[in-house]
């Protein structure tokens, strides 16, 4: 068993891996995952972790850059864990994500790619400054307040003043909050000592950048001098519609708790997707790229091809966004979601769009779907948009028992998508087409929409 720990080797990068976006090379038969490397690079890399068959490494020198490598404007891209693909030209990012999807379908799902219709990835018109949700942890370094994203595989904050995947107004607001926290001497949370007050800065912003909710995540309920911050925010940013506090007293890795308190204004923004308007509460799930979400939902609409007579089941519906977006073309929409706040938003959003054919159920998908089945509910179309872990086998079983004509699977993880598609095909469904969507430019993450029919 080779032990290359702390050794520096020249490595040719043959590919990218889809779990973290690292470059992949070899020292003879020993696989090395090189942080920040790009397919086609030749690098000198120091082995920072050495296992039996693989290791992790950091670049010490780029011997020969890949033709796909670019130099980003971001000064901390080599340290920050937020953007794994920022150093890769955008066309090759898209090509790589298409490859990730195909590899997962082939290796995990055991599908013959020749028998699948995989369409070209839907690219982003604006691959920078797109995030509508920002959460930046704060900390102290040499007595100075810092805020940014974590370094890959660590809880070490990489400080920055400008992030290239979030809007400029978000960067400015975060910097104002940092300045306020320093001036007011607000105690900064120390993860090791489990002490302090301010843990993270959390923003939600709409696509038009006309509404922003600012949320401060704190260890306890006390937040001194917040009225001073409010004055500074409203003086400088008329777009700020609310200041919220989230109490997170846990010592674990959960960034947020369910405990929100509105200090001023409102705890939600309004977001427009096409002709549909949504209330998005600070704690509800909503896709982070509003512009690409419109393209994603239009693709779902195209795959559904509704005539107006169909009953539609929206599984993991969140604040009802997909179902409500399609509701004017359906006879009935039923949504299921575990978050009570999201369900409140979904009910509100149905009324906001003057829809009377939407019903939303709050509860675990694994518990609510069997209840709907027992009530002999029937759905011609089922849409699923699960978290990265995908669907449980029980959920796949129940969805299949509804015997829908179509299933539209919206996935943010090619690996679990491929696994679940295999299980659906074993239930008698066939894959008609799959379209990847670049919802997360500058990162290795890939969204995809799949149409299954029976």
General description of the model:
The chain is α/β, with parallel strands linked by helices and 454 residues long. The protein has three domains: 8-69, Beta Barrel (OB fold (Dihydrolipoamide Acetyltransferase, E2P)), CATH 2.40.50.140; 114-122 and 289-453, Rossmann fold (3-Layer(aba) Sandwich), CATH 3.40.50; 133-272, OB fold (Dihydrolipoamide Acetyltransferase, E2P) (Beta Barrel). Helices cover 24% and strands 31% of the residues. The strands form four sheets. The chain has a seven-stranded mixed beta sheet with strand order 9-8-7-10-11-12-13, with helices on one face. Strand 16, helix 5 (321-326) and strand 17 (332-337) form a beta-alpha-beta unit.
């Amino acid at each position: 068993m080779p032990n290359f720990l702390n050794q520096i080797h020249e490595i040719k990068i043959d590919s990218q891996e889809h779990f973290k976006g690292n470059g992949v090379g070899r020292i003879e038969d020993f696989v090395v995952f090189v942080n920040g490397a790009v397919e086609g690079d030749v690098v000198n890399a120091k082995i920072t972790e050495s296992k039996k068959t693989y290791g992790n490494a950091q670049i010490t020198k780029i011997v020969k850059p890949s033709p796909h490598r670019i130099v980003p404007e971001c000064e901390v891209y080599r340290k920050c864990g937020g953007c794994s693909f920022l150093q890769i030209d955008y066309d090759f990012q898209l090509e790589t994500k298409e490859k990730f999807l195909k590899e997962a379908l082939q290796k995990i799902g055991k599908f013959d790619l020749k028998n699948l219709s995989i369409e070209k990835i839907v690219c982003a018109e604006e691959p920078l400054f797109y995030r509508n949700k920002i959460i930046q942890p704060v900390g102290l370094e040499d007595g100075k307040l810092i805020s940014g994203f974590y370094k890959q595989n660590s809880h070490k904050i990489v400080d920055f003043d400008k992030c290239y995947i979030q809007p400029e107004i978000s960067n400015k607001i975060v910097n104002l909050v940092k300045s306020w926290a320093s001036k007011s001497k607000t105690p900064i949370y120390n993860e090791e000592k489990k002490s302090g007050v301010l843990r993270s800065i959390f923003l939600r912003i709409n696509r038009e950048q006309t509404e922003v909710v600012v949320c401060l995540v704190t260890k306890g309920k006390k937040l001194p001098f917040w009225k001073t911050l409010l004055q500074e925010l409203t003086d400088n940013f008329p777009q700020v519609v609310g200041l919220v506090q989230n109490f997170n007293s846990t010592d674990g890795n959960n960034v947020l708790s369910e405990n929100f308190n509105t200090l001023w204004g409102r705890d939600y923004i309004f977001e427009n997707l096409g002709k549909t308007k949504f209330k998005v509460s600070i704690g509800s799930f909503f896709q982070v790229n509003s512009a690409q979400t419109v393209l994603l939902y239009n693709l779902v609409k195209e795959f559904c091809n509704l005539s107006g007579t169909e009953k539609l089941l929206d599984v993991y519906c969140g604040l009802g966004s997909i179902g409500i977006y399609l509701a004017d073309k359906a006879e009935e929409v039923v949504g299921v979601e575990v978050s009570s706040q999201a369900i409140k938003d979904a009910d509100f959003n149905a009324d906001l769009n003057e829809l009377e054919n939407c019903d939303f159920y709050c509860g675990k998908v694994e518990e609510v779907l069997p209840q709907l089945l027992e009530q002999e509910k029937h759905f011609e179309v089922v849409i699923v948009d699960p978290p990265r872990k995908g669907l449980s086998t029980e959920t796949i079983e129940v969805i299949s028992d509804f015997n829908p004509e179509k299933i539209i699977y919206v996935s943010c993880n090619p690996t679990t998508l491929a696994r679940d598609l295999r299980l659906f095909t074993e239930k008698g469904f066939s894959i008609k087409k799959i379209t990847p969507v670049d919802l997360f430019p500058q990162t290795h993450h890939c969204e995809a929409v799949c149409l299954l029919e029976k």
